[in-house]
Amino acid sequence: MAKREYSYYPGCSSQKGASSSNLMKSVDTMCEELDIQLNEIPDWNCCSASIGYASGSELPRLTLSARNIALSEEHNKNQEIVATCAACWLATKEAAERLKEDESMFAEANQALAEAGLKLQNTTPIKHMAEVIVEDIGIDSIKEGVKKPLEGIKIAGYVGCQTNRPFGIAGESFENPMYLDNLIEAVGADAIPTYEKKVQCCGGALAFSEPEKSQEMIKGIIEAAYDNEADMIATPCPLCQANVEIYQDQINEKYNTKFNIPVVYYSQLIAVAYGRSASDAALDGQLIAAKQLEDVAKK
Amino acid sequence: MSEQAEKKYAAYICTGCGIGDRLDAGELEQTASRDGRMNVVKQHEMLCSQDGVQMIRNDIDKEGVNHAVIVGCSRRAKVEAFAFNDIAMTRCNIREGVIWARPDTEEAKETTQEMANDYIRMSCAEIKQMNKPSPSGQQGRNPNVLVVGGGITGMTAAIEAAEAGYSVHLVEKSSALGGHVARLHKRVPFKAAPVGTPNSPDANLPMPEDTGIGDIIAAVEGNDNIKVYLNSTVTKTSGAPGRFSVDISTESGDTITENIGSIVQATGFKLYDPENLPEFNYAGSPDIITNLELEELANAAGDGPIKRPSDGKEVTSVLFVQDVGQNSSDEGRLPYDSGIGDLVSIKQALYFKHHNGDGCDATICYDNLRTPGAPGEDFYRSGQRNGVIFTKSEVKEVVPGDSITVKMHDKILDEDAEVKVDLVVLDLGMVPNSGPDPYAANEALEGMSDEDRAEELEAQEAHAADETSVKVESILNLDYRQGTDLPHLKHGFTDSHFICFPYETRRTGIYAAGPVRRPMDMKQAMDDATGAAMKAIQEIENAAQGRAAHPRVGDLSYPTFRKEGCTQCKRCTVECPFGAIDEDEERYPQYNEARCRRCGTCMGACPVRVISFENYSVNTVGAQIKECDIPEEWDEKPRILVLACENDAYPALDQAAISGEEISPWARVIPVRCLGSTSLSWVTDALNNGFDGIIMMGCKRGDDYQCHFVRGSTMAAERMAKVGDTLETLNLEPERVVVHEVAITDIERAPALIKEMEETIEKVGLSPFKF
Amino acid sequence: MSELNKAMIEQYRNSFLSEVEANVEEGEWVKMCMQCGVCSGSCPLGKHWAHPPQEIFMMIRAGKREEVLTSDSMWMCTSCYNCIVRCPRQLPITHIMHGLATYAKKLGLTPKNQPTAKFAEIFWNNMMKKGRVNELKLGLSLYFKDGFGPGIKEALRNKDLGMKMMKAKRMAAGEFFGGHGVKDVSGLQKMIKKAQELEDARMKKFDEPEASQDG
Lengths: 299, 771, 215
Ligand code: SF4
Ligand code: SF4
Ligand code: SF4
Ligand code: SF4
Ligand code: SF4
Ligand code: SF4
Prior knowledge:
- The complex is a heterotrimer of chains A (299), B (771) and C (215).
- Chain A is of the alpha/beta class and 299 residues long.
- Chain A has helices at 21-34, 58-75, 86-101, 103-114, 129-137, 139-144, 179-186, 206-209, 211-227, 238-246, 248-255, 266-273, 291-298; strands at 4-9, 36-40, 81-83, 126-128, 154-157, 190-191, 232-235, 263-265.
- Chain A is built from 13 helices and 8 strands.
- Chain C folds into 2 domains: 3-112, Fumarate Reductase Iron-sulfur Protein, Chain B, domain 2 (Orthogonal Bundle), CATH 1.10.1060.10; 115-191, no CATH class.
- Chains in contact: A-C, B-C.
- Chains B and C meet through helix 11, strand 16 and strand 18 of B and helix 4 of C.
- Bound molecules: iron/sulfur cluster (6 copies).
- One iron/sulfur cluster binds next to helix 15 of chain B.
């Protein structure tokens, strides 16, 4: 595989010691295996995610993302920007598009960027890591590199909201995207293409501010996975992963359920299937241990 | 009779399309010559090939063959190849009807061959009862089109016909051409936004357009082929397509009589009377106006703002109430809606945005917003884009005052609201300008006994003679036996065959177009007018050659009756769905060939069976029923007679065979022109002959009919209600005779219905009448 | 509710719609909604919205300024983008909901103690300090958002969770003292300040109802 290079926007929750640092680590491992070089955008800032809106209004939010793109354009010339977090990707891509459509907004964003000594060209494509896997590399190529197929593990592919909407992966439907299932099959596990809650909202940032309402939805996501006899849930989104994994105890308490299902990242699946250790795959980062993956990693 | 003596019969058996492989062609030949007693019997391996057709042609030209049976595919296939119009001809369907309908197995072989032999016997019997059809020569070619109504529809029809080289007489009741459209300020746009126009709120979307009516009036007035009669009406129409005689009473009080080939009725609509709707208070304020009155206000505004009528104040807020008095089940209100009112109100709301500025609020209160037509959705968005407020709401009351108060219930927010505005516009429905329905009283006749029916008819006639009370004015003043005007379809709109042929009415050669036919807007009316003009032209040419119009297009045969046998029962004159039959001075039926559609309903109606066509009669079908071979009871091979309407049921069976559905080997299918032509005697004959079951397949009848002859299948169903008596006299089970509605799409169902009869027979046993 | 908003005369007029068009993110799309209700039926927290998106749009058109801006509804948006991909008119519904929330907050009309509004504020302030989000501080300030007492309870309830997260190295106590941040904090802050100024200059003035901010 030829070496690929991207400008990397990890986002706040993928930092060391943050809630999805296990995503970061497994992505690093995955990229090593797939011969992808990620060049972190120097001094990147937070995108304000999908919650910043209420305090920071339109232009300030767009400017935040514009700063990251401008930094990338300055330091990582001619490299496509890749994000691993759905919210980061969405905020950045949305900002790029909005500033393309609205010239006066673009001018004002640059006026603000000038205060930090930056200038936005806004010509850089912005990708999600899943797009790199599905479109740039291709699921078939992923399959070729599998050393330890995840045989006999049944995995509910949970795509969630923002990886899927409003942009999504080209050629996939919003209501029933298939790429995650295809990836699960490619690493030798069993997919559940009819998993009903594949694109259900987990509450996103409202898991913090409206815990009861969000946990009711999370409960549905987990329940459907159990109904489909899934061994674990896999997702591309850090917020999905956190929300669905973290609150299982609280949900059990409230609804008298006995949920205890591991929730892992696609990148962890690839890392394990490519023969890497449990620690390289960041399996130690699970609150609910993915035993079956650990077993494969040990083999 | 010398013609009888010259008859020479031939059967041509095709062995192509697998027929030769599946059937014993020698045996077929033998059946045709021995049982069918054909003078000439020939085989060909591909009859529809040039060589095969030439073989038949040679026999006709050189050997004097004048009656031919083409044995091969269905009558619906290879129509052009076998168009031998100079002889009597029938088709014997052993491809779709036999080999494709039966499995290619050893055990089915015997019954399949029997089926084919039977069909050959039947067709040979049929051809003996047929004659070559020839036109009556009742009329010649008359290139004049009468257009009644000088609105956008009438003018468009006139221009279309005139440009095609026909002479047009355009009769308009009022003093000017242009109709409603001439009163409009602008029209709803004709075209959608270009493909690729984005959904965004600043997209370039269609806006109201100039009506262009001036140019159209000028085009009519400047056309030498169009003669315009203003302030004129049609006071009498007699004759038939190709030879109508029309009296036009003109402005000066003179009556001009014109010879006319065909007629387009484009008499349009009037607005529903708002005085019937007290809750909207039309009479209560000059600022509560109709949608048509708003057009005049807008015209009066010139380039300036639209002002309200009461005090001339510039309108700063206007509210449109949609569908007033429409879609209502209340007495005296319209049970339908005009369907275009929402487009009209969007257009009018945009007048205010244009004339009175963006600051003028325009609100449209709708229940179901409908924007039909190509530009509909874009025009809706255009209204939204320009700030027209749309609210799904029910307006309960409009209260006059210095500003008008509109009391409504917002259905989205589910709350009552009161809005004060300067002007209220009522979207009123369209009421067709049609003449009186000839069948308004006839519904009373349905299901009556013969005696009651005759009495009722007498009573009606007597009543009609002294009728002086107010009634709808006639438009065409037809002197037809069956009334003065086009029959109505629903709610006063004139007839049309709404399923297949929108401009066709039940009066051949008279075509309805525009809002008299159904509510429609200017664009639709113009399209409609073009279609009707084409139909009018086509009928002029058909009538000139004595050819039938849809659906038996080109048929040269027509019904005649044997006067000596006629009992003057009036069944035929009353039941003909097309008003084709008048009565002469001696009260005998008088056929008008050019009005006739060849459905055979009259034939099926005649109790003494004296009506026939040269190529279709009680005998052509009766002979087939008699010649069908009925196996002895102990053979345990039942026979099921299927009388299938040639328009839908027969093609459905063909299609079933093509798609590989099996059809019962006991079935013998005879196509009929319409179930309306079925004679009760066929049923009696079949039962007497030993048929075990009879299935009649016709089109859907009733209000949502699909019958190509509109009333045919209804008539048949009525008549067949009497079959019970026959069965009783013969001491047979009633389930042996059934009538089914079959649509052309019933490809699986049609064979299943036959299968069902097979099972019934298994249950009740074979007929005891097998001798 | 203010007298002005109750007055029937204000209903079904364009005044509030114009305000939304001028001052709310993507507000110019509101008039293009055709009231099909697909958005409302697609919203995951739909049942918790007093007025789902379709209704909010109708309320704007009906001139219900205060009812809309003081509503709790748009704060229920999880940014799932379900509505956007399904809306037959392609309205950017998510953004309009965000925009309405932002605008209401700017006017001080947000319901008191709206948890998402509070959270958003905490999030934003947390981020603006260093240019990146400090999840630990974010979490702690979140627990104390309703004051000290409930905060302790909330913190205790989530204590187990916190310990587990730390064990999984997904929460670092060290974050509390320093932690991640961008280097050019001052540039970033200047930049955002400028953006805020530019945006404020865009805002059109509209009469605000003299209502109390509690709604
Ligand atoms: S199409 Fe008809 S006529 Fe032609 S070969 Fe087939 S069966 Fe014979
Ligand atoms: S064939 Fe039909 S249309 Fe013709 S006269 Fe008889 S009933 Fe009327
Ligand atoms: S139905 Fe037959 S008998 Fe009766 S009037 Fe007509 S032709 Fe004569
Ligand atoms: S007319 Fe019908 S029963 Fe009559 S036509 Fe119809 S198709 Fe058939
Ligand atoms: S889906 Fe779109 S058009 Fe439909 S109600 Fe919602 S915003 Fe309006
Ligand atoms: S994006 Fe917001 S408004 Fe739209 S469906 Fe999701 S939660 Fe509802």
